[in-house]
């Protein structure tokens, strides 16, 4: 009997040992089957971050290209709120002693002086004659005009920073402007209150040298020597408009000469005691038509 009892006890111990082994094996298998959630979380996080970065980059690219003129989008400024558009006839010239009764203030099209203002990144410290500034816009330039009583200090520096070192753009004070500042191109104007408004850059990108929107795609921005002095330009005239001012339809002005899309400049002043030579061709250094340039509208 004792012997049987002993055997029974041994069998029980053996069963218990086997049970523990099975449990240990199951536990080990369970450990092996656990997924590396930490690693998976890191990988998913990196994927999400990559998607966000790529998406943001594409948005930034789209923000820029949305304002680039193209055959299918000839006037991106149509998507800028607040832009005033007026269609003007080109190449209507006045003399240096004539004034134009402009329909807008500041003007952004219409009859203008036969000499254009220098517009290669010019920061004019004093107001410049309207008739010269309008002519530079006919050449594809942007004009930033600001009210000197409303735009000063850091705000003025911010606007100047958009001009300095750039081509086909100029800035000048404009007394009596009804807004702090305005931006003009030929046939387009945008008046704004805040120099940090995103529409400033949108306007410049959309319309500076936009061959679809200004009359003379091959015109230059630097002035003919002896015709316009950027260090001492003709001053802005705020006096009452004279009765003989040239009208917006060109009454009292003359049609300008246009050659191959580029306006012929006035003949340079003759030396004292000599006769001025006639203007017979494009000025020395005139830019040739750009290959594949887009026609103006």
Short description:
The protein has helices at residues 2-33, 37-65, 130-138, 153-161, 199-207; strands at 84-85, 92-94, 112-113, 120-123, 142-146, 169-173, 181-185, 188-192, 254-255, 258-259, 262-263. It is of the alpha/beta class and 297 residues long.
The coarse overall form would be elongated
Count of all domains: 2
Mean pLDDT across every amino acid position = 82
Number of strands: 11
**Could you say which structural class the secondary elements and strand pairing correspond to?**
alpha/beta
Q: Helical segment tally?
A: 5
Descriptive account of the structure:
With 297 residues, this protein is of the alpha/beta class. It folds into two domains: 33 residues; 188 residues, no CATH class. The longest helix has 32 residues. 31% of the residues are buried.
């Amino acid at each position: 009997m004792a012997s049987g009892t002993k055997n029974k006890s041994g069998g029980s111990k053996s069963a218990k040992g086997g049970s523990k082994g099975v449990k240990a094996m199951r536990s080990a298998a369970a450990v092996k089957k656990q997924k590396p959630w930490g690693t998976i979380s890191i990988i998913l996080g990196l994927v999400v971050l990559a998607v966000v970065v790529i998406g943001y980059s594409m948005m930034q690219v789209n923000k820029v290209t949305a304002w680039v003129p193209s055959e299918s989008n000839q006037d991106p400024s149509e998507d800028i709120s607040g832009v005033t558009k007026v269609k003007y006839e080109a190449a209507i010239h006045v003399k240096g002693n004539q004034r134009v009764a402009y329909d807008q203030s500041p003007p952004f099209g219409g009859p203008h002086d036969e000499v254009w203002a220098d517009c290669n990144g010019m920061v004019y410290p004093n107001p410049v004659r309207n008739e010269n500034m309008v002519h530079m816009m006919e050449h594809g330039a942007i004009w930033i005009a600001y009210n000197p009583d409303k735009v000063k200090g850091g705000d003025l520096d911010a606007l100047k920073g958009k001009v300095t070192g750039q081509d086909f753009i100029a800035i000048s004070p404009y007394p009596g402007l009804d807004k702090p500042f305005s931006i003009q191109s030929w046939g387009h104007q945008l008046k704004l209150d805040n120099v940090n408004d995103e529409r400033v850059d949108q306007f410049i990108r959309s319309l500076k040298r936009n061959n679809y929107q200004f009359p003379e795609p091959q015109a230059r921005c630097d002035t003919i020597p002896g015709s316009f002095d950027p260090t001492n330009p003709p001053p802005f005239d705020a006096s009452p408009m004279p009765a003989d001012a040239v009208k917006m339809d060109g009454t009292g002005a003359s049609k300008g000469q246009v050659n191959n899309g580029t306006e012929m400049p006035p003949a340079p002043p003759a030396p004292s005691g000599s006769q001025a030579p006639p203007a017979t061709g494009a000025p020395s250094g005139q830019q040739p038509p750009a290959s594949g340039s887009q026609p103006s509208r």
